[in-house]
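Pasting as-is:
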Amino acid sequence: MSVDPAAEVHPTAVIAPGASVAAGCRIGPYCVIGPEVALAAGVLLHSHVVVDGVTRIGEATEIWPFASVGGAPQDLKYQGERTELIIGARNRIREYATLSPGTAAGGGVTRVGDDNLLMMSIHVGHDCMVGSGVILVNHATLSGHVTVEDNVILGGLSAVHQFCRIGRGAMIGGMAGVVADVIPYGMVVGERARLAGLNLVGLKRRGVERATIHGLRAAYGEIFEAAGGATLQERAAAVAAARADNALVREVAGFITADSARSFLTPG
């Protein structure tokens, strides 16, 4: 066990031999830390937090009571193999959240970026890749193998099917069931989710120029609303070539033309 002398550990906390706790960490009452856990400087566990498995938690991440981080993945194929959960810096992980490590079949790693807000009772399943600046609202659920890019918001009680990709800056409405890929900056609504335009509010909040947004809106119409026999990928490629000066259009088109295990959400 390696606990830095500058760390504060409540006497009721249990830290297994082999764990690493860096300077400035604060470990609250009744927390349990497993033998292969590494906490970077300034991590705060409020109380009753369980961190297990091969788990790395980045600087200044804060975890609230009754969260379970790094426990065995909820996958019947998992047979106890050594897999990892890597969480970045300055994340806020609220009460009853669960975050699972990877599985051997899925690459062995679940990864969460920096500066995310993971609210009460969210679930990040095995082998997920979550970017930075993401918000998972209460009870939002990511199945295994989901990719969530930067600055995505998932509304309360939403759920994402295995192997789906959620593109950068997308907004998923509350209680939506996402069963296909969501384009970057897409707005998604509905019990069985459908694409409902672009996340214009999110784009404006990030200071995207008006002309760039207008170009993206026009490209959205050309990709999803144009008549004709071309496939979605063919339309996306054509729009990217025609609007090569717009970085957001190129990003959306590249997302659509990339390899994927799922189809795409389209307007209902």
